[in-house]
Amino acid sequence: MCQLLGMNCNVPTDICFSFTGFRRRGGATDVHTDGWGIAFFEGRGVRLFLDPQPSASSAIADFVRRYPIHSLNVIAHIRKASQGPTNLENTHPFQRELWGRYWVFAHNGNLPDFRPQLDGSYVPVGDTDSEWVFCWLLQSLRQRYGLQPPPREELFVCLAELTCQAGARGIFNYLLSNGDCLFGHCSTELSYIIRCAPFAEAHLKDEDLRIDFSQVTTLEDRVAVVATQPLTDNEVWNAMPPGTLCLFHHGRVLLCRKTVAGPDRH
Fold this sequence. Notes:
With 266 residues, this protein is of the alpha+beta class. The protein has helices at residues 16-24, 59-66, 129-145, 152-167, and strands spanning 3-13, 36-42, 45-51, 71-78, 94-98, 101-110, 171-177, 182-186, 191-196, 201-203, 210-212, 222-227, 238-239, 244-249, 252-258.
């Protein structure tokens, strides 16, 4: 299946270190060779880079790795195709507008039998189940709340309900952001780490590269990094329980909730 990478911070931060290891999984240290993409939120705008080529050998990935784009929310994806051919329109992340904000979505999994009816407000461009379910999520939010977005906490509860519906039909690991916060759902596999003072040294699993975060941060910085599998081998990552949705805001886990039968976890 695919690989996900997300970042949520309290100050604009670059993702160069994490992305250096992550991109290696697209054909060097792993088999996810069916394209890759990354989206950076900057204010209400989004820088979106997509490439149907393997990330480990992509010239665009070389540029992203070297260029320190600073962002509060980042979503990246490396694809191992389950539905749809390998081409640009099927490359994650996907982007749409809702309530005057761009929303970005990336999916790791397979929903072979989930094709809810779409009313035309959001229409897939490509052939993937991932883009279809993204259109359905935004359509459902628009149908429920109309032209005005709900408070962040109410939005989280609604997304948990919708995620439960889709997740019951297959594997539904995903990252979703509207530039204000980052939502991460674990269907089978997703982990996160919160980096804050006192900062320490980190070493990548997929490349022999290390960084001393104490040299490039301030005491107030807080960064949450979310990935399908941990990116470093000398830090403690938190494995999200399957069937859990988390909301990250300003580098913290603000809310966490079960999306399957069982008690909520806050």
